[in-house]
Every structure is written in structure tokens, then in C-alpha cells.
Amino acid sequence: MIYSHDIRVFCEGAEITGWKSYSIETDVLTPSDGFSLSLQFTKELWNKLKLDSEISIFIDETRILNGFIGERSKSPSRDGGTNITIAGRDRVGRLVDESAPLVSYGNLRIKSFVESMAGEWFDSVVLQNTRNRSLFRSVKARKAKTYREPIQNVATGKYRDRRGPLVNVSNPLAQVLVGNTKPLSALIGGDLEVKRQQPPIVDAGFLKATHARRVRPGSSRWQVIEEVLREARLIAWASADGRTLFVGLPNFDQEDQYSFIERENPSQETNATIGIQESIEELYSVYTCTARKRKATVKDNSNTTDGTGLRFQRPKRLLFTDDNAKSQSQVLERAEREQLQRQVDAFQITVNVAGHSQILGNSPPTIYAVDTMARVMDESTGIDGSYYVTSVSFERSRGGGTTSTLKLVPKGTLLQL
User: Fold this and answer.
1) CA 357 – CA 264 distance, rounded (Å)
2) What gap in Å lies between CA 236 and CA 92, rounded to an integer?
3) CA dist., res. 339 & res. 89, Å (int)
4) Residue 237: how many CA atoms within 13 Å on its side-chain side?
5) Are 39 and 83 in contact (CB under 8 A)?
6) How many CB atoms lie within 10 A of CB 255?
7) Element (H or E) spanning 254, and its range?
8) pLDDT, one tens digit for every residue, the chain (417 residues)
9) Are 365 and 138 in contact (CB under 8 A)?
10) Run of H or E residues at 184
11) β-strands 151-153, 54-59 pairing
12) Which residues, at least 6 apart from 141, have a Cβ–Cβ distance to it below 8 Å?
């Protein structure tokens, strides 16, 4: 069942009604979320919807976005009248545009560093997304169970270690994957036939640096934040109410919040159209990093000499250098990071659905939200599993009705800004 949705917009605290069409984007992989909304023109509304006014957008009773008007226009509408259209971004847009203060930030913890860059635009920086994930859905709706958050210690900013790709220790070639020094099994410990490397996704303490880091003149606040978070393998986005900036990892340890099904037989019940995109254009079967006479290699398939047999039918090799890697473990971590970063776009699901919410059991509808899990079943391709929601777009138009588009990736995908 598809419910009609009530779009509520507050401009500088005053509610503006009568919206005819809109497009609202929420995405954990873009710096700032955006919006565009249209309604019938009146002089009174034109005077209220001033540039740089603070905007809060609700779908039904759920706040979706808080930001500022960056553009407005008066233009003819298709029905013969005149429209006002406003567009803008959430509060992260200010961090994208504003120049960063020229300060040193070496030896700061992640939270303190981001707070120094977030300035006046956010009340606080948080390292777990529990509260915001709840805000993004709705107060009354059923919330899927979250088993645990990626953060292990909020006080110190310590995150749980995440495991990297499989390394086959029993393969004789594995003995030379990290150069001609020690066997790989000796480097990672243990005598198990198959073992995983475990480079930490983030530094649990201070930002490591051999010198005091300084902001380069001309850098924006977000550019400085992004540079550090990329290195730490973290992502960040604004809370729905605009009060906090979340910094951390995607949470894959959740139950499914939504269920999307596209049947192969059109006569059977289907609630979504599902698109599947696979690509190896940016991937390699073998990744080799060199640095200061050290070498490390990771493969798409650790059980073959050339990494073929999984995604690749024939070899495709990448050799690159990273002079910032100063130890054998750092060279190996850099090779693995190159592989993981390129896998972000290797597999993506796009789900198109009517409406902006879904009912689970007897609870009220749950608004679609990022940083949640969803079950996706596409009978024609055989896809059936749990996937992580990275993006949700809400749209209403005269010709297209009220729809939502979600983008999802497999569990464990390394996401980065």
C-alpha cells in the first residue's frame, strides 16, 4: 500500500505550505545533501523565501534535511501559472565553500580535529550514528535492530578493526607476496591454511604524522576534513536536524529495515524495479605497491597466480608506488587499500519505488533512510541478500508522481568520500 506524503517546509521557523514538486537528495558519499522545491508564486512567498534563509524539510513527521537556500527563481509553470523554485544544500555545504582556518592539527584525535574544522556550523561532532539513524526514519515507526555500532570507544575515538581480503598462506606464491624477506605466515602469525590480513581501518588514537600538519592556504574546511578522513577510511555526513556532524564508519551490523522484491513473473507481487550494475573497469586482478625497495601484492583471487577466477577471466595488473609507506606492513596496507577503494563502484543496486516509505508488520510507515540495511531480491538475476543503503532520493513531479530512488552496495564495502 502506498501512502500519500505530507511535505512540510519551515523557512526561518515559519511553515511554508503548498509545495507542488520537489527533489531531495541524501547521500553518505557526497559532501552535502541538496534540495529543490517548487510552489505557486506569490509576492508574499517571494519575500519570505530569501536567499541564505535556513530551511528544514520534513516528509510527514520525519525531518529529512536542514540547510540554507542557495538559489531561487521565478518562472512559468507547465499549468500556465508562475512558480517559485528554491534550491540549496544542507549545512555541510558551508564547510565545502568556506576557507579553512590556517591552523595546525597534528596530534589531534579525529573528533577534535573535525570539531576544529566544523566551526560554527554544527553544535557537535559525534562518532556514532545511532540517534541520527532514528531521526532519519520516524518517531513511531518500527526500527530494525542494530547489533552494535562500529565505534568501540567514543571517548578515545577507537573503532573496531575490520578484516581485509583473504590471503591464502598455503599457496607457495604467498611466500613472496610481501617481498623476499619472511614467509607471509610468519608476518601475520599463525599456521592456519587460510588467514586474513587485518590492517586497521582507522587509527584508534592520534592522527599519525612525522610533523605538525598545517592547513594549506586556499583549502576549504571540507577539503581538509576529507583529506584526513580518506586516510583514516572514515566518512561523514550531517544529521537530519542539522545539529551534529557524524564521523565514522557505515554500520553493516543491522537487521534489514526494508524489503524490495522484483519478481521474474510479472503476474506475481512486485514492490520495486531493481537495477544491477557490475563493473571491472576500475579493478585489477593483481595490485602491487612498491616503496623504498619494499613490495606487497594483493589479488582479486588469492588462489590463483594471476588473481583470475573470480571477477576476472584473464589477468589485469596494476603496479604503483607510494613513498609515504615506510614499513612492510604499510606497503601491504596501501596495496589492500587501493584494491578496496576501487571496489566501491564494482557492484551497485538501484531500487526505484513508489512513495517514500515502507510498512513493516503493523507499525506505521518507515521513511527510507541512508545508513540502513535492506533485503533486495531480484529474481531475474538471482540477487537475494542484505545490502547497505548509501543514497536516497525523494521526488514528486506532475508527470512522475511521488517516488523514491535508493542506491545500495554489498555489506563490507569500503566507502570513502
Assistant:
1) 24
2) 10
3) 32
4) 30
5) yes
6) 13
7) none
8) 456 788 999 999 999 999 999 999 999 999 899 999 999 999 999 999 999 999 999 998 889 999 999 999 999 987 778 999 999 999 999 999 999 988 887 777 888 889 999 989 999 998 888 777 776 666 566 667 776 777 776 766 677 665 443 333 333 333 333 333 333 333 333 332 333 344 444 443 445 554 457 888 889 999 999 988 887 778 899 998 899 999 988 889 899 999 999 998 877 888 899 999 999 999 999 999 999 889 999 999 989 999 999 999 999 999 999 988 888 888 887 888 888 888 888 899 999 999 999 987 677 788 999 999 999 999 999 999 999 999 999 999 887 789 999 999 998 887 877
9) yes
10) helix 184-188
11) unpaired
12) 357, 360, 363, 364, 365, 366, 367
- Nearest C-alpha neighbor of 117 from the set 105, 131, 135: 105
For Cα atoms 252, 389, 361, give the angle at the middle one, nearest 5 degrees: 85
> Is the distance from CB of 366 to CB of 137 less than 8 angstroms?
yes
Query: What is the SS3 assignment for 68-123?
Result: EEEEEEEEECCCCCEEEEEEEEECHHHHHHCECCCCECCCCEHHHHHHHHHHHHCC
The C-alpha atoms of residue 234 and residue 166 are separated, in whole angstroms, by 22
Write down the residue that cell numbers 602469525 correspond to.
189
| Alpha carbon distance 388, 406 (integer Å) | 10
Helices (H), 266-309: none
Which residue reads 605497491 in cell numbers? Answer: 289
Given the DSSP bridges, would you call strands 244-248 and 124-126 parallel, antiparallel or unpaired?
parallel
CA 330, CA 385: separation in Å to the nearest integer?
A: 34
Helices (H), 205-275: 221-232
CA distances from 302 to 172, 247, 260 (A): 11, 33, 34
> Regarding beta strands 357-358 and 366-367, do their DSSP bridges make them parallel or antiparallel, or are they unpaired?
antiparallel
Single-letter residue type at 411: K
What lies within 8 Å, CB to CB, of 390 at 6+ separation is: 27, 28, 29, 250, 370, 407, 408, 409, 415
User: Do 87 and 69 form a contact (C-beta atoms < 8 A)?
Assistant: yes
Task: Provide the 8-state DSSP code for 220.
Answer: B
